[in-house]
Design brief:
This protein has 17 helices and 13 strands. It is α/β, with parallel strands linked by helices. The chain has a 6-stranded mixed beta sheet, with helices on both faces. Strand 7 (155-161), helix 6 (166-174) and strand 8 form a beta-alpha-beta unit. Helix 9 (219-227) crosses helix 10 (244-258). The relative contact order is 0.12. The structure holds pyridoxal-5'-phosphate (PLP). Pyridoxal-5'-phosphate binds at residues 112, 114, 140, 207, 239-246, 300-301, 303, 347, 349-350, 377-378.
């Protein structure tokens, strides 16, 4: 039993009252991304403050009444969610912010926020009795799908672009996915996956198209709110590729507002790389999204044609937030700063959120008296190659104390850093 009422098209606004699975709006086709609507009146009678006090499940299934799945297969899954929300120890002082938190989603089972969506896809596939799940991905959606599917005994077929980093690729190969490496960018991988999914009728985990997946991603917002005793920060910041994560962040807070558990939705900030910023451009030029290049080292957000434009723009508009863009240099500088000051090692796309925070703080978008949560969407071990380009590699020494003493004297800064 779940509390889904039906699906509303984000484009034409038509409502389809059904519990049966739907992918996109029958009228609008592929661009008619659906949004799942719930019976908040009934959920409110179940999910009140005592519900949370008594609940011992520290995973995304904690929020089961707000998810479009049946409990049956959930208990077999990997433990996704309830990642740490860490208060900054040093950086909030440096950047003069009233309170700064990091939601460390690199601590999910396959080390990225994508696990929140993938586990839902796998559970839905199980419910429908399907054996094969497929997607196209720049990396994390794929590796997380492969891991969650392996746990639940499903087969995965993954379409990756030529450029997928080796950390992510090795992960999904280890999980036993069938990998189709497409000679081209993410767009090419996506298009081929779509043709293949239509032909072979595999379960579709492409995040934008499948409305269930944003419902998984929204649990990051539910957790942030609960971890702050239902008083979320003034701002919540995430990096943006397809627009599903940011759409999910909005949806989570929206749900809590409907249930009367929070008083207002935080301002949501989307961060993009200046080498690939279709959302930033469209938002500030007040026009529809246009295809852009994918020129950024932050591969998880190198998405030239975002598949979820409407939810990605609405999240920011409706929450009165904004979009900012950062350079690849700023991303790498903030990646090191976050690692060195807070002990949180993030991949470039995840560090982009933090870089966006710095930019927004320094340009006055975020005020001194405001509180901020930065979502760290993926772990640094996903992409070590780019980090090694911006750190000094260690010098090779013989195992002699004398040599060591000499080295430390020559390189005085080594111990001071
Ligand atoms: C996928 C991803 C994002 C962006 O999410 P979208 O839903 O594509 O906007 C950000 N960071 C990381 C690490 C990701 O894997």
């Amino acid at each position: 039993m779940n509390y889904v009422l039906g699906y509303r098209c984000t484009k034409c606004n038509e409502f389809y009252e059904t519990k049966k699975p739907m992918l996109t709006c029958p009228k609008c086709g592929d661009s008619g991304i659906l949004d799942i609507e719930y019976d908040y009146k009934i959920i409110a009678t179940v999910m009140n403050r005592t519900y949370f006090d008594d609940n011992q499940d520290y995973s995304i299934w904690r929020y089961l009444p707000l998810l479009p799945v049946e409990p049956e297969f959930c208990q077999d899954s990997l433990k996704v969610g309830w990642t740490p929300l860490l208060r900054s120890r040093t950086l909030e002082k440096k950047y003069l912010t009233k309170a700064l938190y990091f939601k460390d989603d690199g601590q999910n089972p396959t080390q990225s926020l994508k696990d929140r969506a993938s586990v839902i896809a796998c559970v839905k596939a199980k419910e429908l009795g399907m054996q094969v799940v497929a997607c196209s991905s720049t990396g994390n959606a794929a590796s997380s799908l492969a891991g969650n599917a392996a746990r639940l005994g499903l087969k995965t077929i993954i379409f990756v672009p030529k450029r997928a980093p080796i950390g992510k690729l090795s992960q999904l190969l280890a999980f036993g996915a069938v990998v189709i490496k497409v000679n081209g960018d993410y767009k090419a991988a996506y298009n081929l996956s779509k043709l293949a999914i239509d032909k072979y009728k595999w379960y579709n985990r492409n995040a934008a198209i499948n409305p269930n997946l944003i419902e998984g991603k929204k649990t990051v917002a539910l957790e942030i709110a609960e971890q702050l005793n239902f008083q979320p920060t003034d701002w919540v910041i995430t990096s943006v590729g397809d627009g599903c994560t940011i759409g999910g962040v909005y949806k989570g807070f929206y749900d809590l507002l409907q249930l009367g558990l929070i008083k207002k939705i935080p301002k949501i900030m989307g961060v993009q790389s200046s080498g690939c910023s279709p959302f930033f451009d469209a938002f500030h030029e007040e026009r529809d999204l246009e295809e852009t290049d994918e020129l950024t080292i932050a591969d998880s957000i190198a998405v030239g044609i975002p598949r979820n434009p409407i939810k990605g723009i609405n999240a920011v508009k409706k929450s009165k937030g904004t979009y900012v863009q950062v350079t690849d240099n700023e991303i790498m500088t903030s990646l090191l700063e976050l690692s060195r000051n807070e002990g949180i090692f993030s991949e470039p796309a995840a560090a982009a959120s933090f870089a966006g925070y710095i930019k927004a703080k320094e340009s006055g978008i975020i005020k001194d008296f405001e509180t901020v949560t930065v979502i760290v969407t993926g772990n640094g071990l996903k992409d070590t190659a780019n980090v090694l380009k911006v750190v000094k590699e260690p010098k090779l020494l013989d195992d002699s104390l004398e040599d060591l003493i000499k080295y430390l004297q020559e390189e005085e800064d080594v111990l001071d850093e």
